[in-house]
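Hi Y.,

Following your request, here is the sequence exactly as I used it, all 197 residues.
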Amino acid sequence: MIETEPMEIKRVYDFKGVGEKDMYLLHHEELESLALNIKGIKRIRFFMTFGQSYLTHLKCLENVGMTSIEPIMYEGKEIVPLQFLKAVLPDPASLGPRTVGKTNIGCIFRGKKDGKDKNYYLYNICDHQECYKEVGSQAISYTTGVPAMIGAMMIMTGQWNKAGVYNIEEFDPDPFMEALNKWGLPWEEDFNPVLVD
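Below is the corresponding structure, written out as tokens. Let me know if you'd prefer a different format.
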């Protein structure tokens, strides 16, 4: 494992349907289970995009201590600055009507198949305003909620049924992938993607 500073590694990537965006290497919890459960994996990384305005605001808030999780005393009461910040910021659900643009969420795979090097990009493009029209929330909530609903459906219908505790990647992916197409997150494939170094 190699550790880096937050936001230390940045790449620019041209996302289909979205355009060029700055993306940053981050830790994300699914990396831990994927690294354990995908046999033979040698490298796994997670990138997320952030706009410069967001990063500038975040840095300013960090500089004045508002992102701290350490309690402080304020007017005789103990508060956690980050919790206070969350309380004064708009409820994310209220941002749906004014969030525009699209998401592109996917995975780029590199490996061998039948002894030959293969690259593969599996992704979904989701429109914020279309999601808002359908369910009253933007695409970030939609792309989080639909897979959770499908996972619950797989368990309830018995398609995913094993004794014990498992992560999603330990189940048969085919019914899940088919359901993504049916329930609003159709996926696309690219067999010659631009790779990320």
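The first strand starts at residue 10 and ends at 15.

Thanks again,
Q.
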